[in-house]
Write a structure and sequence with these properties.
Radius of gyration: 15 Å
Low-confidence stretches: none
Number of helices: 3
Helix content: 25-40%
Number of strands: 6
Mean pLDDT: 95
Length: about 140
């Protein structure tokens, strides 16, 4: 599998996993938590839509607190594209939609993936920006 296909698969898998986690469609145990966190590089940093910087340690502390918190959520991803590619890293963009009874939201995301020492492609940086959601 080429690096673009790998990154695309990582994005789709994470969107699926976080939706299941928010809805408690998976066991809320350490093994499930570790499976999600294993997708991220230890040096991971995220800039949230609100402008806060979140590192791997903070992501790890946040994840158990949101288990089952959004039982009605549906999360979808569209427009996954590679923007820059090197042998062991790739910069991707995508659009994420979150649908809930209390309101929907849309995020434009830029994600940088790097090949880690274990050979897996890992999330290294994520920047999300709020975007108006159009009626579908």
């Amino acid at each position: 599998m080429d690096i673009i296909a790998e990154a695309t698969a990582e994005i789709n898998l994470f969107i699926q996993n976080i939706g299941e986690w928010f809805r408690s469609d998976v066991e809320g145990n350490k093994a499930a938590e570790d499976a999600i966190l294993d997708m991220f590089h230890p040096d991971f940093i995220m800039i949230t839509p609100g402008g806060a910087a979140v590192n791997f340690k903070e992501l790890s502390a946040w994840l158990p607190t949101v288990y089952g918190l959004k039982p009605d959520i549906s999360v979808e991803v569209e427009d996954i594209k590679a923007q820059y590619v090197q042998a062991d890293s790739v910069l991707m963009t995508y659009t994420e939609f979150q649908y809930r009874e209390e309101g929907d939201n849309k995020r434009i995301a830029t994600a940088f993936f790097v090949r880690a020492e274990d050979g897996k492609l890992k999330w290294h940086h994520l920047q999300e920006t709020w975007s108006p959601i159009a009626e579908r």
